[in-house]
Amino acid sequence: MLSPGFSYITPLVSFGDAPLKGRRLIGYYMKKKKGYFITLEGIEGCGKSTQICHVARYFKRHKKPYIIVREPGGTKIGEKIREILLDKKNNAMAHSAEVLLYCAARAQIVHEVIAPALKKGITVICDRFYDSTIAYQGYGLGMDLRRVQDLCAFAADGLVPDITLLLDLPVKTGLTRAGRTDRIEGRSLRYHEKVRKGFLALARAHKRRFFVINATQKITAVKERIESILDDAFGS
Ligand SMILES: Nc1ncnc2c1ncn2[C@@H]1O[C@H](COP(=O)(O)OP(=O)(O)OP(=O)(O)O)[C@@H](O)[C@H]1O
Ligand SMILES: [Mg+2]
């Protein structure tokens, strides 16, 4: 977890699907100084870690306190779970164990970091959240979507992102960019295609909070698109 060192301010929680005028959150947040919950999603190598710094800079410019967290991990317990999940030696892991481990890591970070930060008015910018579990384990592995979604909601303790930035690009481009192969990345192209389709299906199902961004563009173009989405949402 990275913290830019801002002091904690106004206590309040995330609103999930808050009532928006269009998609704008203006007034709802900026005036009341509440913490926003922003997630970045997408397949391997789509640019989440690259762009998360620009999202953070946006909030820094607006003098909003924020933290950056990553999933799975972000806590001592979560990092241990992450190691188990990504270790190539663990290829005998049952799909159900995989989904439960992701949810366990998430439950810990929600409890220990995300919910307390939001309650203090701190914006949380999260590199992956439960949409990844639904896309990778639900759509990718073909597990029962309803069950996976229920587990995700349980682990997140009802928390819903305010804005989800989905960086979309062809699987081959993403995997080439990522250039590594952990246990999950090493799965077949077909698997990753299903994951990508899963993310896009989620975006269609949750139009209010999802913003699909063409991640084949240059880094600066993606950054500008993200900034315009945040300006639009937060009314700067
Ligand atoms: N728009 C872009 N155009 C070209 N290269 C990019 C772009 N965005 C990111 N990259 C590069 O692609 C690689 C993967 O980017 P990054 O690590 O940000 O992806 P990620 O979504 O965080 O991947 P992972 O899911 O593996 O964590 C990095 O080397 C990064 O510099
Ligand atoms: Mg990354």
Q: Separation of termini?
A: 27 Å
Low-confidence stretches: 1-31
* Residues in helices, as a percent range: 40-55%
The tally of domains stands at 1
Rg, rounded, reads 17 Å
Could you give the count of β-strands?
A: 5
What small ligands are held by the chains? adenosine-5'-triphosphate, magnesium ion
Strand order, largest beta sheet = 2-3-1-4-5
Q: What share of the residues does DSSP label as strand, in percent?
A: 5-15%
Task: Give the helix tally.
Answer: 8
The chain-level structural class is alpha/beta
- The CATH superfamily is identified as P-loop containing nucleotide triphosphate hydrolases
CATH fold-level name: Rossmann fold
The helix/strand series, from N terminus to C terminus, equals EHEHHEHHEHHEH
Overall pLDDT score: 86
CATH class: Alpha Beta
The gist of it:
This protein is an alpha/beta fold and 236 residues long. The protein has a single domain, classed as Rossmann fold, CATH 3.40.50.
Can you walk through the features of this model?
With about 240 residues, this protein is α/β, with parallel strands linked by helices. It has a single domain (about 35-235), classed as 3-Layer(aba) Sandwich (Rossmann fold), CATH 3.40.50.300. The protein is about 50% helix and about 10% strand. The chain contains eight helices and five strands. The protein has helices at about 50-60, 75-85, 95-120, 130-140, 145-155, 170-180, 190-205, 220-235, and strands at about 35-40, 65-70, 125, 165-170, 210-215. Strands 2-3-1-4-5 form a five-stranded parallel sheet, sandwiched between helices. Helix 1 (about 50-60) crosses helix 8 (about 220-235) and helix 2 packs antiparallel against helix 3 (about 95-120). The chain starts with about 35 loop residues before the first strand and ends with a helix. Bound molecules: adenosine-5'-triphosphate and magnesium ion (MG). The site of adenosine-5'-triphosphate has 15 residues, from helix 1, helix 6 and helix 8.
